[in-house]
Write a structure and sequence with these properties.
mainly alpha, 270 residues
């Protein structure tokens, strides 16, 4: 019976990770909250890497056409220098530029951030900050499309992604907010945000592979981790589809309300 209860906990954690990864409410912050409510220990790097990998697979599947077009256009421009491929080439360059701040911050500060900023109090404050940011950009409707981005835009959005290493600061939220703030159209902001997510997640998987291999609890947690992985995979897919629809309608304000409510309740009760 205890095994079934533990598996149910990991199913819930996978569901929380999957639902909250694409939307601007912070998956890491919600995992901390749920683990606190369930009385669970922090699951460690192996669990984080596995569930993030599941989310990565789901998001890559949804954006597979965009990814293929960008890769194809990038290399065709390198080979031919034809102007029709320049937009894809420059978009890839901006993804690389935008990835650098978060990559540097992860290498040098991630352990410190996770040690210092993993309290529920930090998560509550971070959610309130996210809520304020979402509220401020609620009426912005930019005009920049894929071919109109600049190095400045990439750096600003990249810095926003680096800030999202703090639990409670949503990665998708911070990058979408920054993208809209610099004048991107909703669809470009969404695309750029999740194209930035892909390299940073792949980098985290590569850097953390040894932690999975050398995890002393690997055998005992194989089934719970598998349950969490599959649940995250499915939940991320449907949550991402839902969020695409939300972005198309410009209804980010509802996530602002959610962050205000949850952040306030955490301050009061936890």
């Amino acid at each position: 019976m205890e095994n079934w209860f533990d598996w149910l906990k990991y199913l819930l954690l996978g569901l929380v990770q999957g639902v909250t990864e694409p939307i601007p409410v912070s998956s890491s912050g919600h995992l901390i909250i749920v683990q606190r409510l369930l009385g669970m220990e922090q699951n460690g790097l192996s669990f984080e890497i596995l569930t993030n990998t599941a989310s990565l697979i789901a998001i890559c599947f949804i954006f597979r056409k965009d990814i293929l077009d960008l890769i194809t256009g990038f290399f065709r421009y390198l080979q031919t220098r034809e102007p029709k491929y320049r937009s894809e080439f420059m978009f890839c360059i901006y993804i690389i530029i935008g990835t650098i701040p978060a990559a540097v911050a992860a290498v040098f500060f991630k352990d410190t951030i996770e040690r210092v900023f993993t309290s529920v109090h930090t998560v509550s404050i971070s959610l309130l900050i996210t809520g304020v940011a979402l509220w401020l950009i609620r009426n912005l409707r930019g005009q920049k499309r894929d071919g109109n981005l600049t190095v400045r835009d990439a750096i600003i959005v990249g810095l926003a992604q680096a800030v999202a290493l703090i639990p409670g600061i949503s990665r998708s939220g911070s990058t979408v907010i920054a993208s809209i703030a610099v004048g991107m159209k909703q669809e470009t902001a969404l695309k750029f945000s999740f194209m930035l997510y892909i390299p940073i997640s792949i980098g985290g998987l590569i850097m953390g592979a040894s932690d999975i291999v050398h995890d002393p609890n690997r055998a005992a947690l194989a089934m719970p981790y598998l349950i969490a992985f599959l649940t995250t995979l499915v939940a991320t897919y449907y949550a991402m589809r839902w969020f695409i629809g939300i972005m198309a309608k410009g209804n980010l304000i509802y996530f602002s309300y959610y962050c205000f409510v949850v952040g306030t309740l955490l301050l009061i009760f936890l």
